[in-house]
Amino acid sequence: MTPAHDKNDYALGKTHNLETIDIFNEDGTLNENGGKYCGMDRFAVREQIAKDLEAAGLMEKVEDYQNKVGFSERTHVAIEPRLSLQWFINMKHFAETSLKPVLDDTIKFVPEKYKTTYRNWLENIQDWCISRQLWWGHRIPAYYYTSADGSEQITVGETIEQALEKARAIPGNENLTAADLRQDEDALDTWFSSWLWPISLFDGIRNPGNKEISYYYPTATLVTGPDIIFFWVARMIMAGYEYVGKHPFDNVYFTGIVRDNLGRKMSKMLGNSPDPLDLIAQYGADGVRMGLMLAAPAGNDIMYDDKLVEQGRNFCNKIWNAFRLVKGWEVSDAIAQPESARAAIEWFEAKLNVTLAEVEDAFSKFRLNEAMMAIYRLFWDDFSSWYLEMVKPAYQQPIDKATYEATCRFFDSLLRLLHPFMPFITEELWQHLAPRGEKESIMYALLPAQKDADAALIADMEITKQIIAGIRGIRASKNIPNKDTLELRAIGTAKVTNPELVSKLANLSGITLGAEKDPAAASFMVGTAEYNVPLASNIDVAAEIERLEKEIAYLEGFRKSVEKKLSNERFVANAPAAVVDTERRKLADATSKIDNLQASLDALK
Description:
By secondary structure, this protein is α/β, with parallel strands linked by helices. The chain has helices at residues 7-15, 42-55, 92-103, 114-123, 160-168, 190-194, 197-200, 211-216, 229-243, 276-283, 285-294, 306-327, 339-364, 368-391, 401-418, 423-433, 455-478, 499-506, 541-566, 569-574, 577-604; strands at residues 88-89, 108-110, 128-129, 131-132, 142-146, 152-156, 182-183, 187-188, 219-224, 249-254, 258-259, 302-303, 331-332, 399-400, 486-491, 508-515, 522-526, 529-533. The strands form 7 sheets. Strands 16-15-18-17 form a 4-stranded mixed beta sheet, covered by helices on one side. The chain has a 3-stranded parallel beta sheet with strand order 2-10-9, covered by helices on one side.
């Protein structure tokens, strides 16, 4: 056992009260405890011991094996554990004052799972070694001197003058001078300097109660990584209660750690991290930010892939292209607003208010990636894919002023929502969206005011979108060009919401309500409502007959397999009721589809 030179042996030595014997000098040579190897370098001793064992006939075998050995980052020399004189702080008092505020949510951890980590560390806390053998950092304000009785003593002071004054106050030391004092060569642990950060930032140590610290302390939220919960977060909390008397922040938001595809933490030392400047040059600063934030739930690690930031870049392109489209429209005061545009504006206003509520809720719960995703969907799916198509004027035709102004207002709101996540492109486009003052910035622009959303209006538009998607699906499956007009027939009591929009986006020549079912027409369902699109003049009849026959044949094969399963008495008797019901629904659906397809086939023949 080597309690002085191995972490595990040291712990075992403490448990069993083993003697701790240090064999190293400061220069890496062996001291008098090294026996006949005294004065030899540590690496030379290892080789010599092997030779001595061989010479004594005690060497059984020699083999290579791998081990984890720590090396200095700068000197690339193996690091040896060695006992030395250090400065420590007794941490029991600090742990007692700092555990309860986190457990009772005076300081809220997000996500909460890290409260367990925090409690485990503080309930098993060890004394804190605050001295480091480094040549940079805050030097320890301790001074050594030889007292009148010849023993070495220690005095502490912010300056050598203060330390000397304290030393002289001790009887027998009246004649000490500054030259008799030697300052400790060690520097303070980085975290010992950093635990005062919330206080020292506003000069709260030298000037407690000043205007700035009274205003900013405690701050609202600390954002940091979970790997330094104990090193920094816990110690800032300790210092806050010790030196100010209250917590330093209300919330702690823990980000995830970015890892490579092998799960390793990205670091310069491993060389497994892409250069952020190279990523920014290729994908843009906003693209990198947005791509990573979308994949970063609070406290969960990010498995980095270039596809993440590529998605961010593509989203930036989407925003830019939407801006170019809108600003490229010619605006006319003489045109009345179409009914389709009015419906689109009312719908998007409602969708915007729904998203504002989602974002506010996500922000309040520190679910930043969910807030980003809600805005992403609103811009990409609702605004770009649907709204702009709904209000876009015909080719080379102007847009009415009311619709254009509403569209610019929506764009303004979207840019404000996106700005915290994508500051550069949003600032640039916001400045060009409308005339701005010299000192105006989107950074100071308030988020749009949230209003109640019309749920019924949103639901109606979802039906509208499904009807349009159904017609477009028929076009795609039948290879019907978009320029060819079609007719839509709503069967029975089926409704067509927002008919002007359906006609515009699906290029319809007309819409018929309460129509009879036409077996020769292509049909689709929206919920329980059925719609027909006559195709007699738009399709190749022979090719359509061939397609229908193939689809019927496939469904008949599928139906036979389900019927075989349901005819098995053991399956029906032993399988869970839900499974049997699912199979019966499959059979009914297949039969219904076959009947409909057969009716269409018969009509074509």
